[in-house]
Write a structure and sequence with these properties.
alpha/beta; Rossmann fold; globular
């Protein structure tokens, strides 16, 4: 694709609500931004079929049940005569699906190629979590659109933290002509296509594209998509911050410490409403994050003379006081080995735009179990080295990265399932973070 994208800033009509009637069960799909389009996802409750064998499904909205790949579809008989639903007059005949009773609705399979009409992918981002998730939604949707060779992709920002970073409301992008491959759905995108394809508009796929995504997309592909489609949408002040020359970046290690929701706070709370109760159960994702000693191992082995810690305003992460005391404990030998210097540590907890800028412009970054730092890495032009323990759930980062990147992954015997001798409370997590022996941490292959 050329440098200038043919953009059509057409408004995308987003239905505020759609209702689907199944017998006497009424399901309200209030918004697409939760990651599905008028249908059940893997996380949705499974609805038992009514006792009658006939299910009426109206044409304005097609509901489906998303089943696991191992689920066997129940054969369905399609007729062309539909009884009028209760409370409504005569209607235009529509297909009736007669399903044999198995406790689940018969799934609608989408293995056929769409017709010659324009193939559109609508990506609704902003209603699922915070900025890292929102950028992930956009990139998962773009990857899906490119892999099925769609004609157009519509990016719709429906709230969240996107407006703080991107200039995006409703944006329609033309994709490259795919020729004979147009509309072909590759195996890795089958489930995403089934979950997002609109029965009323079979050439349209609409979703929040969070868990609905193509499987196995390499980080290098997300990186290319971020440069082509997300980078041009950055607000001018954010882009200016990222591109500002930083002469000290090469010797600086940037560390992201995830706070807020992992530390008994609301997802969007900036300050805690009450003190942390260290005796209650800890957030399970804390066990997937690095202990403080992993940062010490990186600093010592790589020889960094400066550390920038980017965290949230609550500053609840247990490694913050550990970092504040680190310069007094750790002596760094300079390159000639004849003298020593004190490590410089800076703790930053600023606005979302400033913190995101600091992550994106870094050259050496330790990512946390968080899509914020993972998204920043994918969007970065400057990054040279990534250090990681675990990639975040639904992350755009993985072991298959772009050229010029050095990836170092670390392993240890602690996990959510096995964290002995530390108990599963905030007190236990804090003890593990601050006292875990660096000798128990080792480099491991990323695969």
């Amino acid at each position: 694709m050329s440098g200038m994208l043919p953009l059509a800033r057409d408004g995308v009509a987003v239905p505020v609500g759609q209702s689907c009637k199944i017998g006497r069960v009424v399901i309200l799909a209030a918004t697409f931004t939760a990651g599905f389009a008028c249908g059940f996802t893997a996380a949705s409750p499974r609805i038992a079929t009514p006792t009658t064998s006939s299910l009426w499904i109206p044409t304005p909205c097609a509901c489906r049940s998303e089943l696991d790949a191992t689920t066997t579809a129940v054969p369905a008989k399609v007729t062309t005569r539909t009884p009028s639903p209760p409370g409504r007059g005569a209607s235009t005949p529509a297909p009736t699906i007669i399903a044999r009773t198995v406790g689940l609705l018969t799934p609608v399979r989408t293995t056929s190629k769409p017709s010659s009409d324009t193939i559109i992918v609508r990506v609704f981002a902003g209603g699922n979590g915070r900025l890292g998730n929102n950028i992930g939604q956009l990139l998962h949707g773009l990857a899906f659109a490119r892999r099925i060779h769609a004609d157009k992709v519509q990016l719709v920002a429906s709230g969240g933290q996107i407006p703080q970073i991107l200039q995006l409301k409703d944006l329609t992008l033309d994709l490259p002509d795919a020729g004979s491959q147009r509309g072909d759905i590759p195996k890795e995108c089958n489930e995403a296509a089934q979950a997002s394809r609109m029965n009323k508009e079979p050439n349209t796929y609409a979703s929040g594209f969070w868990t609905t995504r193509c499987a196995g997309v390499p980080g290098s592909e997300y990186h290319d998509l971020a440069f082509e489609y997300i980078w041009p949408l950055l607000k001018p002040e954010v882009k200016e911050c990222i591109e500002k020359v930083d002469d000290a970046a090469e010797k600086r290690l940037t560390v992201h410490l995830r706070g807020q929701d992992l530390w008994s706070m609301g997802e969007f709370d900036l300050v805690p409403k009450k003190p942390l109760n260290t005796s209650v159960g800890a957030h399970h994702w804390l066990w997937a994050n690095p202990p403080c000693s992993m940062y010490e191992k990186i600093i010592q082995e790589e020889g960094y003379s400066e550390v920038l810690v980017v965290t949230s305003p609550d500053k609840r992460h247990a490694c913050i006081p550990w970092f504040e005391q680190l310069p007094d404990r750790l002596q760094l030998l300079e390159s000639n080995g004849s003298s020593s210097s004190k490590l410089k540590v800076t703790i930053q907890a600023s606005s979302l735009a400033e913190d995101f800028c600091a992550l994106v412009k870094s050259q050496n970054m330790v990512v946390s179990f968080s899509t914020l730092s993972n998204a920043a890495a994918v969007l970065s032009k400057h990054l040279k080295r990534i250090y990681v323990r675990n990639f975040a759930a639904n992350s755009m980062l993985n072991c298959n990265l772009w050229p010029g990147i050095s990836l170092v992954r670390y392993g240890m015997a602690i996990s959510e399932q096995h964290h002995e001798p530390y108990n599963n409370t905030y007190g236990g997590v804090i003890e593990w973070f601050q006292t875990y022996n660096v000798s128990q941490i080792h480099r491991t292959e990323c695969k």
